[in-house]
Amino acid sequence: MNTDTIPEDGEPPAPSPVSPSALSSATEAAPASGQHAPDSPGATHIRSFVHRRGHITQGQRDALERLLAQWSIPYAARILDPASVFGRTAPTILEIGFGMGETTERIALDRPGDNFLGVEVFNAGVGSMLKRIEASGLQNVRIVQHDAVEVLRDMIAPSSLDGVHIYFPDPWPKKRHHKRRLIQPPFVALLASRVKPGGYVHCATDWEHYAQQMLEVLGAEPQLRNTADGYAPRPEFRPQTKFETRGLRLGHGVWDLMFKRAA
Ligand SMILES: C[S@@+](CC[C@H](N)C(=O)[O-])C[C@H]1O[C@@H](n2cnc3c(N)ncnc32)[C@H](O)[C@@H]1O
């Protein structure tokens, strides 16, 4: 869901623009297992984010205007064909909530053989990611600017993802807001159903209470197996993020969780 109107500049896209044909016409009526009670008119589940008019730089705005059409896939209730979206067949990793995209960029550069589908709602973040794609010449990242719950439910085929990254999701620290946390049983059931047998779900947080919730919820999901005895060591491929650095500065710990979809 775009939070602002993004003007188009009519500039022809350079390499492999995402075409509407990347979206299969075979609509799958995905189960609404990520749904909760509505929290606002028209919503089908409690959102893990709130729309707010955050600061956006001129560079991010400019990147949105010039590059969004080239590197993003509009949300639609149709299953995506990753081979068509990325122009090749390769392992597909979904990242939920990439923020300003620094981790996505680092990992996508380090793993050129993988395709990364980043989902983010925040305009400044999407603008920042687009700038990174342009500056680094990344070819293996595409963006969907929409609620990840709906993207997973409506656009991702069952048993299709090789991995999922969820790094430092909003912790919603107040008890009355815990219902907004992304990692809840119905969402995790939906998420696990989209991962291939043997594929992984990697989460990290700097909020101990949320880490415990993640361990409990991921551990209780029958489709998933913990690869560690409790929390996992930070894998080599995950660099330290801005949020992590801030958390560490505030004296918080950081907890990684690495689960695999059972065969
Ligand atoms: C705390 S930030 C972390 C960003 C980044 N992963 C990092 O480690 O720096 C969480 C991000 O998740 C995004 N987000 C939250 N709920 C989302 C949802 N349902 N769909 C897509 N993005 C979401 C927010 O907009 C925010 O940018």
From TrEMBL:
Substrate binds at residues 174, 206, 241-244. Pathway: tRNA modification; N(7)-methylguanine-tRNA biosynthesis. The keyword Cell membrane does not apply. Its EC number is 2.1.1.33. PROSITE patterns: SAM_MT_TRMB (PS51625). Gene3D superfamilies: Vaccinia Virus protein VP39. It catalyses: guanosine(46) in tRNA + S-adenosyl-L-methionine = N(7)-methylguanosine(46) in tRNA + S-adenosyl-L-homocysteine. Keywords: Methyltransferase, S-adenosyl-L-methionine, Transferase, tRNA processing. It is an enzyme of class 2 (transferase). S-adenosyl-L-methionine binds at residues 95, 120, 147, 170. One of its GO terms (cellular component) is tRNA methyltransferase complex. Pfam families: Methyltransf_4. GO terms for molecular function: tRNA (guanine(46)-N7)-methyltransferase activity. Catalyzes the formation of N(7)-methylguanine at position 46 (m7G46) in tRNA. Belongs to the class I-like SAM-binding methyltransferase superfamily. TrmB family. This is tRNA (guanine-N(7)-)-methyltransferase. It comes from Bordetella genomosp. 8. The gene is trmB.
